[in-house]
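Figure S7 source data.
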Amino acid sequence: MKNNKTALITGCTSGIGKALSVKFAQEGYNLVLVARNEDKLKELSNYLSEIFYIKSVFIAYALEKPEAAEYVFHRVQELDLKIDVLVNNAGFNEFGNFIKTNREKEHDMMHLHMFFVTDMMKFFLPLMLDNKQGQILNIGSTGSYISCPYDAVYAATKSYILSVSKGINAELKGTGITITTLCPGSTKTEFAAKAGMEDTLLFKLFVMSPERVADIAYKALMKRKAVVVAGIYNKILVMSSYILPNRFVAYLSKMMLGKQCQAD
Ligand SMILES: NC(=O)c1ccc[n+]([C@@H]2O[C@H](COP(=O)([O-])OP(=O)(O)OC[C@H]3O[C@@H](n4cnc5c(N)ncnc54)[C@H](OP(=O)(O)O)[C@@H]3O)[C@@H](O)[C@H]2O)c1
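Tokens for the predicted NAP complex:
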């Protein structure tokens, strides 16, 4: 079921990004796959083009680098591709007691989640506006809504993503271009293990599959929703953060994330 549209997806070599790549391929989109691991990108690109009869290319780049969005944009121009859907999914977590977490990793995380995502919209939105069509999917988190102890910098970067996406989406009203922010909660991907947080309560309760999260994201994107929180438990969590006193939310977050850090 080819649709002659092209989706660019960052962070597609595992987890939610990989599930989204499969979903878009199933729906007939051609793909531009972006992440760092060239072998995995090649393998995924070949697999998706063979199974779903789509065109797939890949760009291997470390997206935390200051010039990364410009590099990706120019590669897409060189390949003479029009991007109909832009998915800013690549991300990671530097988790732990703030005084012990790695400053350089935090800087990379801030660059990847904030500068890169903002620059990608800066580069691709004018072309979408010229074409009078386009959709952007940015990946926030339930942490976009909550100041998380032991995950303070990560949650702050995800708040930025939610805020900037909602703001620009409102600016775009009436243009045919929309920005959807997906806010997942704990999802069974490589994310928790990479951050060393797989033993936290958060990753033991109500963990969703990346395929389910990708389905929810795809539907919300197609309905041009501004924001979607993945799953009923995460929706309740986010609503509670509005209703409950800040002190109690902080206490609950500490319980969900803290045990491992307190033992450090
Ligand atoms: N899993 C969760 O519980 C959860 C919850 C809320 C939000 N999220 C968000 O969901 C998104 C996807 O995470 P995931 O759970 O699917 O994690 P994942 O399985 O670890 O996948 C992360 C992807 O991002 C890519 N990536 C990471 N750092 C990169 C960099 N500097 N440059 C280029 N690519 C990079 C990785 O590929 P390479 O290593 O090949 O570059 C990989 O494809 C992230 O934005 C994350 O913050 C996840």
